[in-house]
Design a protein that fits this description.
Elements lengths: L12 H4 L36 H27 L11 H40 L1
InterPro entries: bHLH_dom, E-box_TF_Regulators, HLH_DNA-bd_sf
Organism: Nematostella vectensis (Starlet sea anemone)
Keywords: DNA-binding, Nucleus, Transcription, Transcription regulation
Length: 131
């Protein structure tokens, strides 16, 4: 089997976009070799339909998550005792108020438990004196 002799010609400098020695450099801009890139121009009337579907879905999931978190904070505020304020508590203030309220409730339970155990001891000591 014989191979034919193919003659390949090398591309010229002009075809490759390389300036040759005979070509004046003023003809080539510094960005001549960079690929043409089209940049989207931000516009106030941005069309959300141009976004890929997965980005829209991700953004919608994030909006729903934030809405649920905010609803949770609102429900927590409903269970806290009213604090005099002209504005709504922030998330951090809500958490701090919830911690204070829980500690207050714990102290009430501990005081009640201590009071009931004191009462039981005094009742048993009184019964012991009667006999």
């Amino acid at each position: 089997m014989e191979f034919q002799d193919y003659s390949f010609s090398m591309p010229t400098c002009y075809q490759l976009g390389i300036p040759s020695e005979n070509t004046p450099m003023a003809q080539y801009s510094p960005y001549h070799y960079a690929p043409q890139v089209t940049m989207p121009i931000p516009h106030p009337m941005y069309d959300y339909n141009l976004e890929p579907a997965f980005i829209r879905k991700r953004n919608e999931r994030e909006r729903i998550r934030v809405r649920h978190v905010n609803e949770g904070y609102a429900r927590l505020r409903e269970h806290l005792p009213e604090e005099p304020s002209d504005k709504r508590m922030s998330k951090v203030e809500t958490l701090r108020a919830a911690i204070r309220y829980i500690k207050h409730l714990e102290s009430l339970l501990q005081a009640e438990a201590a009071g009931s155990s004191e009462g039981n001891k005094s009742d048993s000591s009184c019964e012991g004196n009667k006999s």
